[in-house]
């Protein structure tokens, strides 16, 4: 049964799911949050969320996946250190930039308690939040990014406490500021240097590394920093060497090269008497979004274990050659910890509504059409083609139809054709295209022309979400995210389509889909049955998407739940009902009260035609809902 399902499924769950996703016996998408936790059926999650008064679009978080990923990361470094007899410790530091939302940070902080853990911040708000978390003694907070005196003043004031503050120098001009603060307060935080490596990452964030990178100190700047700190008597504070060559490094070779270069710098600085204890290898540990296991932009050609092995082995090797003691190792993996933990479930509202092919406009009140006007030859020809197309002649007939359509448009441009005749010709032309496409698929015929045609004729599923809010990287950098129905997964999909979102922006679409061998331009879907909901999950949204998402068209945050799966059953905890219109309007600079008042006063001025009380009531009603389409709850409740 399970094997059968696997063969049938075009969605690649086993490839990209990292063990966290599976298709259950009823054809429902399941999340297996790891460890001993029983699987969570997403259809049940939706039902439970609806019982709590929430509705799709629904952001579903699995805190247990955050815990599992953190455990995996420690386990991988543990195993690597054991395998290569590495005598020092590993610490995982979570960069807030990747997902600073409270439920995420709190889950990770809680999960990190058992091990050496820490947070990385790159701005003042992130620092303020990190300082207010309950971190166990010995935790680290690494301060990266651009720094100013207020930030450094606070970092210095916190020096020497139970939580170790590590200020990572990214730019030369930070050194005089750090020195000034330490003179003022008579103390200094632990210091790190971020080195700018010659070796770059790979994939989309390649430019984050390399000699022209935005952050980091080149060789001369490193030496300058060391000399300045030595002169100031602060060298003992300089304990960390750091690098970060960009996110989602797709190729393990690049990781190895970067670690080798950084380890060499570590060794050389040790030789110069810098008391470095720790090498921080930054982020970059990638996620296999498409399940291909290749160095393509949305994938990686290595596992988490290979990553850890390469880091540990390379540092070990360089330290042996250079005869310096090995450093403790720190990594700042954010994407790898968070990507799997969140997904968006939402409903397809409709397939694009074509006018039925056999629809012919009525003749009543038709002033345009001459009664017995002879249809032009081109129109008759188009009808002929549509009638005569077969699997044997489809290429030739399709080409004829393209030419005839051009002639028909010319006639229309010149005023020789009524709108009704043009409509008829188009109906027939589209029919020819559909038939030709179907025959091309049946015969396995592929050409650029037919691929382009297929792209034009992709069915659009109107889906209740905003790409810009929930999947911004699909738009911004064409990143792939796995999309699939959460039910009907034991049925063979009969349709192919793309997703269009609710924004009035033609970029608000998802039209590239994960595939092990390629990128798919259509997604296999099951069609929408009358009166039944069709729910999709967009998966692996936990890294960056949560916070990069924006308010385009004023679509706010969707409703949100946290799901925990225990032996006692499924806990579905509502986290948010979604961003209210009040909150969204406030964000855009409006005071909701003032809007209500202005609306009311405007109504009076509009005169007696408008039923003031009815309009006011409807205005309030709209205001109490959320931005997304409100779907019939009874219909949604029928999900199975
Ligand atoms: C963004 C960032 C990270 C996180 O990178 P991932 O690839 O998401 O793990 C780590 N360190 C620094 C300095 C960063 O800027």
Structural commentary:
The protein is of the alpha/beta class and 640 residues long. The protein has 4 domains: 1-76 and 339-354 and 458-580, Lyase, Ornithine Decarboxylase, Chain A, domain 1; 87-333, TIM Barrel; 363-455, Methane Monooxygenase Hydroxylase, Chain G, domain 1; 582-624, no CATH class. It contains 23 helices and 23 strands. The strands form 4 sheets. Strands 4, 13, 14, 15, 16, 17, 20, 21, 22 and 23 form a 10-stranded mixed sheet that branches. An 8-stranded parallel beta barrel has the order 5-6-7-8-9-10-11-12, surrounded by 6 helices. A 3-stranded antiparallel sheet has the order 1-2-3. The longest helix is centred in the C-terminal third of the chain and has 25 residues, at 419-443. It is globular and about 100 Å long. 45% of the residues are buried. The chain binds pyridoxal-5'-phosphate.
